[in-house]
Design brief:
about 525 residues; four-stranded antiparallel beta sheet; 4 strands
Length: about 525
């Protein structure tokens, strides 16, 4: 009789968990739809404003009186966007490091302040034509939506929904729900828990559906390429991979150190955006086709027939991308990285064609492969790079050479000491110290990786951080209530009960314990 009662209670518990999971998925769907609406409007307004600026710069060629309006307009842009960031510093930049720190429990933000400031400031800064991408800000906008909707949920579910919002933001910005989900799992959350990926994918699909049908927007980089890259040409991937790894390391160094130059300029930090906006004027006047995040430049790379011109455009893109981002204005580096990769692929391909070492029809292949390669090197997320570019281009036929180039570039950058750029930016970001333990119960889910020092150890033999309790182990399709003699295995997801105020500190300690 006792056995039947136990089984009944277990079944009730399982049913309750299923209902809770379905409820969480329904909320994730809502997060995706709202994020899609916000990011879709964000993306549309940026395009509208950038078209206005391009039109204005065309007008000054025949009427120099427009210069006054352009200068005043850019000045106003810098003042408004800078002032928004001055009052909420975390609304500046990409926003991905902030989301990463939030998920680690190291940063608390007011979601509404971030949402409206990032939305307005991002439209002004990115729409002006600076070399900034909308994808990072879109991720932060989606995360803010997830945070706002999840206010009444448990803290564990709040983080799941914040991650779901981030995935839906990137999905809406790029039209790539799978790539958006993988980016959040691989680079932002560092957690492949079924609860995280299932709800992130749900939100990403909902956001992409809404953007595609309401705003009529399609994937950013639908580039057709139909010629196979034969195995006997794979040596090009090795050479190009080395080049991308080196360039990626240079860009990482420049982005992390460019802010030092700004600190020497006798201007308040919130006015630093006026510097790239002033530099933008001659760029937009003489070469308007290169301004902005770079998606149109990627689609029209063949418009530069001379190798020398293509090389100069690349130098301009890499240098002004650093200047634009380090100014602190709202805007990211996601799309600018892909643009630089495309230019490097085109440049290398044109040189090889001139040397008689590559058919001209395969240059477009290298353009696409190099986007994944440089992204893999700089962001250090090869799976995201492969999946994102494949999804954006809409073809699985060339997956193998694309993956080879992404892997080579990643390994070269790793040998040169490169670290994930968003993680490096998060490490350098100032954030509040962890408060003392305050008996505020929270949960932290930890993945036990292959070769982890925690693998094959019994729970009682592990020196866990202070006031940390192992509550549950997810192993495959089973949930295990552990005892001191329970042995952890590679692949386990361990649920820890911790204090919310010490979450960031415990996260770092557990990470170090696994090395």
């Amino acid at each position: 009789m006792r056995y039947n009662k136990t089984v009944t209670l277990k079944e009730i518990s399982m049913e309750k968990n299923k209902l809770n999971n379905l409820k969480l998925m329904a909320i994730s769907l809502l997060v995706g739809l709202v994020s899609g609406l916000v990011v879709g409007a964000f993306r549309w307004l940026i395009g509208l404003l950038q078209s206005y600026w391009l039109y204005s710069f065309r007008l000054v060629h025949g009427n120099y009186g427009y210069w006054i309006l352009i200068i005043l307009g850019l000045l106003l842009t810098g003042l408004i966007a800078g002032y928004l960031v001055k009052n909420e510093p975390h609304a500046g930049g990409s926003g991905i490091p902030e989301v990463e720190l939030q998920l680690q429990g190291k940063l608390q933000l007011n979601w509404w302040n971030i949402l409206w400031r990032k939305f307005i400031g991002g439209i002004l800064a990115i729409g002006s034509g600076l070399f900034l991408g909308r994808e990072g800000p879109s991720i932060q906008l989606g995360a803010a939506v997830g945070q706002g909707i999840s206010n009444k949920c448990s803290k564990t579910n709040q983080r799941v929904l914040l991650a779901a919002g981030a995935a839906s933001g990137l999905s809406a910005a790029f039209g790539a729900p799978l790539g958006g989900t993988m980016f959040v799992l691989e680079e932002v959350f560092h957690n492949f828990s079924p609860r995280v990926w299932l709800n992130s994918l749900t939100a990403a699909l909902a956001a992409n559906f809404l953007v595609s049908n309401l705003f009529g927007q399609r994937p950013v980089l639908a580039i057709p390429y139909n010629h196979s890259f034969s195995v006997d040409l794979y040596w090009h991937l090795l050479v190009l991979g080395v080049l991308l790894g080196i360039i990626g390391r240079i860009y990482q160094w420049g982005l992390l150190n460019g802010k030092k130059i700004y600190t020497k300029i006798p201007l308040p930090r919130w006015l630093h955006g006026l510097i790239p906006l002033g530099m933008l004027i001659p760029i937009a006047y003489f070469v308007p086709q290169v301004i902005g995040g770079g998606n149109q430049l990627i689609l029209n790379w063949h418009g530069f027939n001379a190798i020398e011109i293509l090389f100069l455009v690349f130098l301009l893109r890499i240098s002004f991308s650093i200047i634009s981002y380090d100014s602190g204005l709202p805007g990211g580096i996601f799309l600018p990285i892909l643009t630089m990769g495309a230019l490097l692929g085109a440049l290398y391909g044109m040189i090889m064609v001139n040397l008689g070492l590559l058919p001209r029809v395969l240059i477009v292949n290298l353009v696409i492969f190099s986007m994944a390669g440089l992204f893999s090197a700089i962001v250090r997320s090869p799976f995201t790079a492969i999946l994102l570019i494949t999804e954006m281009v809409g073809s699985l036929l060339h997956l193998m050479p694309l993956a080879v180039l992404a892997l080579v570039a990643y390994l070269v950058n790793d040998l040169l000491g490169g670290k994930p750029i968003y993680e490096s930016l998060a490490d350098r970001m100032e954030h509040s110290n962890i408060a003392d333990y305050a008996d505020n119960v929270d949960q932290l889910t930890v993945s036990i990786f292959e070769n982890s020092k925690l693998a094959d150890k019994e729970i009682k033999d592990i020196a866990w951080p202070s006031k940390t309790l192992v509550r549950l182990i997810h192993r495959g399709a089973h949930d295990i209530i552990p005892t001191g003699k329970t042995k952890l295995l590679a692949g386990d997801l361990v649920v820890l009960e911790i204090d919310s105020n010490a979450r960031g500190c415990i996260y770092d300690q557990i990470k170090d314990m696994q090395k």
